[in-house]
Write a structure and sequence with these properties.
This protein is α/β, with parallel strands linked by helices and 140 residues long. It has four helices and five strands; from the N terminus they run E-E-E-H-E-H-E-H-H. The radius of gyration is 14 Å and the shape is globular.
């Protein structure tokens, strides 16, 4: 089963997928779209093209675990997607994934201009990989 990871942003949204064995997440693309209805349509096209069966949507809780404005925006977007897709859409805690992605790029000595173009897809990949690792560990 293919699972999609999404890191929702105001203007840039990162998309990642996993392999068939649900072991490895990899970045697919960044969608540059501010209109959330148009963004949802673009995501639906990827879902169909890539045979995605489930979505993990990054849910940015505050550091104390509370729900803030960003998380409310994600919940609202989940409702938009649910109207267009009949599949599981899992909200997954994504605290600090962008920071982690930035550290990964920095440790690989990739300059900031290059990683700014890819940070959203890399963040979605971390969200999805964390979810896949959770599935694997909970199955033990």
């Amino acid at each position: 089963m293919i699972i999609m990871g999404i890191d929702l942003g105001d203007a840039h949204t990162g998309i990642s997928l996993c392999d068939f064995s649900q072991t490895l997440a990899y970045p697919l693309c960044t969608i540059n779209e501010k209109n959330k209805n148009l963004l949802a349509k673009k995501i639906v096209k990827i879902v169909v093209d890539e045979n995605v069966e489930s979505i993990v949507l990054g849910y940015p809780r505050n550091m104390d675990g509370s729900i803030g404005d960003r998380a409310r925006k994600v919940s609202k977007f989940k409702k938009i997607l649910k109207k267009k897709l009949d599949m599981d859409i899992i909200l997954w805690d994504e605290r600090l994934t962008t920071v982690e992605a930035m550290k990964n790029f920095a440790s690989a000595e990739i300059n900031s201009r290059d990683y700014k173009k890819n940070i959203d897809a890399a963040s979605s990949c971390l969200i999805l990989q964390n979810y896949l690792d959770f599935l694997k560990n909970s199955a033990k």
